[in-house]
Amino acid sequence: MNCILVDDKKSSKELKKYVANCSSPNIVGTFNDSVSAMDQLSKRHNNDLVFIDNEMHILRTNQTPEFIFNYEGIIKIRGRGLYCDKPELSDQIISWIEGYLNNPAKITYVTIEFEYLNSLSTSILVSILRKLSQIILKSKKLVVQWYYEVDDENILDRGKNISLILDIPIEFIMTNNIANH
């Protein structure tokens, strides 16, 4: 894994951060001495990207969701999807999934919890779920749980449409407050 220093002028953060440039489909790797595994990696939209053991964790911002991808078959996507342009992070997510598909867990659990989901974020989510649906072709099980707030018909409808488009079962779970879930 190569790490390059981000120019201060291009980053809204005061400190320079490292950006992962991953050439391997399995982007979970060992960092060299200059960057420890606990260092946060800055990417577009000021998301922080952290690699710990077998997990890729992209921290949420006010406009972007949190992503947790674990080789033990635990995937969580939660927060707000307010993307204005296609984030580079989606390429890293797809790359991680491609590596995961080489040896997926017997059961992959995907938890989706959105407070808001615009059309571009929906498109990115569809790409992620489409890629993950390949798990079924490998005779493995994919369990998708879609949380939505009691009065949020829009999020529920988007989930139902995604389920129909991709022909994957999604369990819809109503909750009182996504932010506190």
Provide tags for this entry.
single chain; 181 residues; alpha/beta; 8-stranded mixed beta sheet; 10 strands; globular; disordered N terminus
What does this protein look like?
This protein starts with a strand and ends in a 6-residue tail after the last strand. It contains 4 helices and 10 strands, in the order E-E-E-E-E-E-E-H-E-H-H-E-H-E. 26% of the residues are buried. With 181 residues, the chain is an alpha/beta fold. The strands form 2 sheets. It has an 8-stranded mixed beta sheet with strand order 3-4-5-6-7-8-9-10, covered by helices on one side. The chain has a two-stranded antiparallel sheet with strand order 1-2. It has one domain (2-180). Helix 1 (89-101) packs parallel to helix 2.
Quick structural summary:
The chain has 181 residues and is α/β, with parallel strands linked by helices.
